[in-house]
Amino acid sequence: MKIGFVGLGHMGAPMALNLLKAGHTVAVFDLSASAMQTLAEAGAQKAASAKAAASGAECVITMLPAAAHVRSVLTAEDGVLAGIAKGVTIIDSSTIDPASVKEFAKLAAAQGNAFVDAPVSGGTGGAAAGTLTFMVGGSAEHYESVKPVLSGMGKNIVHCGETGTGQVAKICNNLVLGVTMAGVAEAMALGEALGIDPKVLGGIMNTSTGRCWSSDTYNPYPGVIETAPSSRGYTGGFGTDLMLKDLGLATDAAKGVHQPAYMGALAQQLYQAMSSHGDGKLDFSAIIKLYRGEKG
Amino acid sequence: MKIGFVGLGHMGAPMALNLLKAGHTVAVFDLSASAMQTLAEAGAQKAASAKAAASGAECVITMLPAAAHVRSVLTAEDGVLAGIAKGVTIIDSSTIDPASVKEFAKLAAAQGNAFVDAPVSGGTGGAAAGTLTFMVGGSAEHYESVKPVLSGMGKNIVHCGETGTGQVAKICNNLVLGVTMAGVAEAMALGEALGIDPKVLGGIMNTSTGRCWSSDTYNPYPGVIETAPSSRGYTGGFGTDLMLKDLGLATDAAKGVHQPAYMGALAQQLYQAMSSHGDGKLDFSAIIKLYRGEKG
Amino acid sequence: MKIGFVGLGHMGAPMALNLLKAGHTVAVFDLSASAMQTLAEAGAQKAASAKAAASGAECVITMLPAAAHVRSVLTAEDGVLAGIAKGVTIIDSSTIDPASVKEFAKLAAAQGNAFVDAPVSGGTGGAAAGTLTFMVGGSAEHYESVKPVLSGMGKNIVHCGETGTGQVAKICNNLVLGVTMAGVAEAMALGEALGIDPKVLGGIMNTSTGRCWSSDTYNPYPGVIETAPSSRGYTGGFGTDLMLKDLGLATDAAKGVHQPAYMGALAQQLYQAMSSHGDGKLDFSAIIKLYRGEKG
Amino acid sequence: MKIGFVGLGHMGAPMALNLLKAGHTVAVFDLSASAMQTLAEAGAQKAASAKAAASGAECVITMLPAAAHVRSVLTAEDGVLAGIAKGVTIIDSSTIDPASVKEFAKLAAAQGNAFVDAPVSGGTGGAAAGTLTFMVGGSAEHYESVKPVLSGMGKNIVHCGETGTGQVAKICNNLVLGVTMAGVAEAMALGEALGIDPKVLGGIMNTSTGRCWSSDTYNPYPGVIETAPSSRGYTGGFGTDLMLKDLGLATDAAKGVHQPAYMGALAQQLYQAMSSHGDGKLDFSAIIKLYRGEKG
C-alpha cells in the first residue's frame, strides 16, 4: 500500500519504520531534515511537503504534537488536504481534543475524504516494537478499512465508536492514570511516614482493592517494582509534561461539556507543581517527590 | 483453643461463627442480646461482659466500630484487661487509627499482654466465607502465634511489620481505593458526556494503564461489570459511610505526621457530599451520581 | 474625537453610549442589526464592517466575548487592521488571555498600530453608569493617550504595566474572587449546619479576618446582605458562566507558566458542577447551593 | 470580682494580666512555674491546682491548647469541677470543637454550673493590648453575665447564639481566612509569573472584588503591605501550625455534620505541605512559598 506519513518525532519515526517493514511504500514528511534522512535510509521516500507526501497516497497518517500542528498540516497551502486524492482516508494518531477531531473531519469530508482519529497508547517502546494500542474513532466501515494499516504498527486495534471517540477513550484513560498515580504516590509516602515497609505496602495493595497499574506495574516508590521508572531514577517512562498535556485535554474537554473534573484538575495542579520545580522531564511517577519532601 | 470474642456486628458475627466451625471454643460478648443468642445457638458461650469473655481465654479478639469502642472494651471496669490472663494475646480486627493501636499496645504490655492489630479486607462476604485478608501488625513472633487463629477466619494472613502497621496497610490501601474510585467515576461520566459507549470505555481502561480494581471489578457505571454493585442499584457493597470512615482515618493519620493528602482529602469531601445527599448507605461507587447529574 | 467601536453586547452597548454622551463621534459595528440600530438612534454612525468602523477613526475600541472573536475582528479581510490608519491605537476591553494580547499587539505593531489591553470590572451596572474600572496594559505613553477616551466610560483608569498586564490584573483578581466566594459559601453553609444564625456569622466575619468582598458585599447566604444577588434569588449579578470563563483563563494562564493553581482549579470544578446542574446563568454566589443540599 | 484563671500561655498570660489591671482578684494556675511567677509578681494569687483556682471564684476562665486539655482541667480529681461553687460560670476561651463544648456544658450543668464558650480573635497582640474579640456562645442571660468580665480583656464581645456557637463562629471565620490566604497567595504568585508588578496587582485587588483581609492587611507577597508578616520574613504573625489546628477543627466539624468542605480541606493540605517542609512556625501567609518555587 502507498502511504503518506507526516510527523517523524519520537513516536512517528518508529511507527513509519514499522510500516516500511510491513512492506508498505511510505512517503514521509517532517520539518526535521535529519528525521527525514533516517527514514529515507530505511527505504522511505522523502516528500518536500505534507502535500507532496499525500499526493498519490492510498492512506495518509499524521502523528503530531498538538491540534494546532494537525490543523496547519491539513490546511496549509502545501498541506495534506491540498495534495490528497478524493476518497483517501486520513488517520490522525496525534493525541488532541475531540472537538478539533470533529472540526477536521468536517473539513476532510467537505472534499470527499474520511478523517479517522486513532491515538495510541504504549509509548516509544510500543512504537518501536510495533505493539501499540490504537483507539479508533470512526464508522465501522472506516474502522475496517484502516485496521490493516494500523496492524503494521500495533497489536491492539480497538474500535471506540464514531469520529472523536478514539480521543475520548485516550483522554479518559489517561485521566484515570494521572489520578491513580497521584493517589498511589500519596498513599505510599503516607505509609512510609507511618512506618510501614514500602515493599510490604505495595505488595498488599497489589493483591487488594487498591490494585492498579500505577501500583502493580509502575509503582512510584523506588524498589517496589524493579522494572518501573521509579527504580531507575524516574527516567525513560512517560514524561510529566506529557501527562500534563493529557490532563489538560481531559479537563478542557470536561469544561466543554460542563462536567466537573475535581480529581483530574487537582492531579493536574500537582503535576504542574512538579513541572514548576523543573521535574517536567522526569517520569510522571516522580510526583511522589511532592510527598516525600525531596522537592515540593 | 479457647477464644474470647467481643463485637458481634456484621463482620464480627460471621467471623466468630467461623471460629466455631474451625473447632475453637468461643466465649462471645456483645451489647446486642440477639447477636449473642445467634452465636449461642451455633455453639458459643454467652459471656456477661468483655471481662467475662476474656477470662480463661487463650486468645481474645475484638471487632468494633471505632477506637473509642476498643478503648472502652479494653479499659472499662468489666473490660478485657480486667479479665484477661497474663501472657494472653489480644487481636484487634477493628479498623482504627495507628496511634490508638500504639496506645492500646502500651496498656496491654503494662500488664503482660500483647496487643496485635489485624484489620481485615474482604467485607461481609469474605467474613461469611472465611476468605478475609488479615493485615497483621506485631513482632514476627506474635504474627506466628496469631496466624493459626486468624486462619480460621481468613485466607490471607499478611505480616505488615511492627505494631500498628496492620492499620497503616489498611488505611493506605483504602486511601488508594477511595481515590481511584472517584477518578474512575469522573472519567466514566466524562466519557459518557463526550459520547463514548461506557462499556467500550471500561473495556479499554481495563486493558490499559487506567486498569484498577475500581474499574475492572467494581466499575461505577451500571452494566460495565455485571457483578458490581453499580449493576444492582449500588446496594450490598462497601457503604459510602464506611469509606468515609476509612478516608477520615487516612487524612487524620496524614495530619498527625504532617503529610499532605491532597487527593484523599478531596475524595473525602466528595463522599461527604454524597452522604449529605442521603446516599451514605449506598455502595461508595455511587459517587458517580455526583458526576452524572442525578444528585450533586 | 472620532472613535470606532466594535462589539455592542451587554457591556459594549452602554460603553459606546457613554462615549456618545461624552461628545465623541462614534462609528459602531456589531453583527446584531438591532444593537446597531439602538446605538444609531442615540447618535452613532452605523458601519458596514469592523473595517469600516476603523476607517478614519482616531481610536478603535473592541469589546468582544473571547480571544477568537478579537482575532477574527482584527484580522478578517473586512477587519480592523484592514481599515485602520497608521499610528492609531486599538483598545481591547474584552477579557482574554494575556498570551493572545501579546500576539495581537505584535500584529498591530507590524503595521504601525499600538494595541492596548484594557479589560474592565464593574459589570453591566458600571458600564451603564460610566463607573467602570479599566485595567490598562501598555507603555506609560500609551496609557496616557488612552486615558481620556476611557475616562468617558469609567471612573478608575489604572495602569498595570506593559502590554498584557491589564488582563493579568483582571484574571488574578477574579481568581481570588472565585476562590473567596467558594470559601465563604462553604463556611456560611457549615455554620448554618452547626447551628449559628447566618446573619450573626456574616456579621462576625465582616469585622474579622474572614472579611472580604464575597462576604461583606456579596454574601452568598440570602438575607445577610440585602443588596446582594443572594437576597433576590441569585439574579442580576455576575453569572456563573462568566466566572467560569475567567477561572478558565486563570488556570490556563497558570498552565502556560507551569504554576500550580490548586485553589482556582478546585473552585472552577465547583462552578462547573453548578453549570452542569443548569445553574450557569445564576449569579456565581449561588455556589452555596452545592453546600446547602438544594442541588449538588 | 474574684476570678479563677487556668492556662497562662502566650494568650492566657496577657489576658490574666489585663484582668488584674481591670481591678479583679485573680487566682491563677498553670503547669509552668515561671508563668505562675510572672503573674504573681503582677498581683495574682498562685493556686496549687485548677481546683484551687476555682475554689471561691465568682467566675472561672480557661485558656488552653485543645479540647483534651480542657477536658482534663475540668474533670481531673484536682480539676475545676471539683473546686467550683454551685452557680458559678465557667468561661472557656480555648479554640476547640463545638461538640466538645456541648459535652463540657452538660458536665457543668449536671453540677449546677454554666459553661460558656468564648474563643477569641486578635492574637497575642490583641491579648496584650486588651483589644481581643470574644465570640460568645451561651444564653442571652449568660452572655450578659460574662460580658463585664470579658470587657476587661477585649473590645468586642459578640453574642453568637447558644452554647457552642462561639466556636462555630471562630472556626467558620478561620476557614474563610485559610482559604482566602491560599487564594491570594496563588493569585499573587501567578501574577508575578505573568509579569505584573506585585504591588500594582495588590493595589488593584484591594480596590476591587478580590479585596479581603488576606490581601489588604496581610498580603503574602513581601513589600505589598509594609506591616504584614510577609514584609518581615513571615515572623510574628499567626503561625501555620495554628492555622492547621483551626482548619482541622473546621473540616472535622464538617465531617460531623456530613457537609463537604472542599476548599477548606484543600487549603489544609497545602498548609500541611508547608508544615512538612519545616515551615510550621512561620506565619501562615508563607504559603506563598509553595507557589513561588522557594520550597514546595
TrEMBL record, chains A, B, C, D:
Positions of the 3-hydroxyisobutyrate dehydrogenase-like NAD-binding domain: 164-291
Domain 6-phosphogluconate dehydrogenase NADP-binding: 2-161
Catalytic activity: 3-hydroxy-2-methylpropanoate + NAD(+) = 2-methyl-3-oxopropanoate + NADH + H(+)
A single GO molecular function term of this UniProt record: 3-hydroxyisobutyrate dehydrogenase activity
Oxidoreductase found in the keyword field: yes
A Pfam family hit: NAD_binding_2
Any one biological process term the GO annotation gives: L-valine catabolic process
Keywords of this entry: Branched-chain amino acid catabolism, NAD, Oxidoreductase
Protein name: 3-hydroxyisobutyrate dehydrogenase
Matching SUPFAM superfamilies: 6-phosphogluconate dehydrogenase C-terminal domain-like (SSF48179), NAD(P)-binding Rossmann-fold domains (SSF51735)
EC code: 1.1.1.31
Gene: mmsB
Region forming the signal peptide: none
Catalytic center residues: K170
Pathway as given in its UniProt record: Amino-acid degradation; L-valine degradation
Entry's family note: Belongs to the HIBADH-related family.
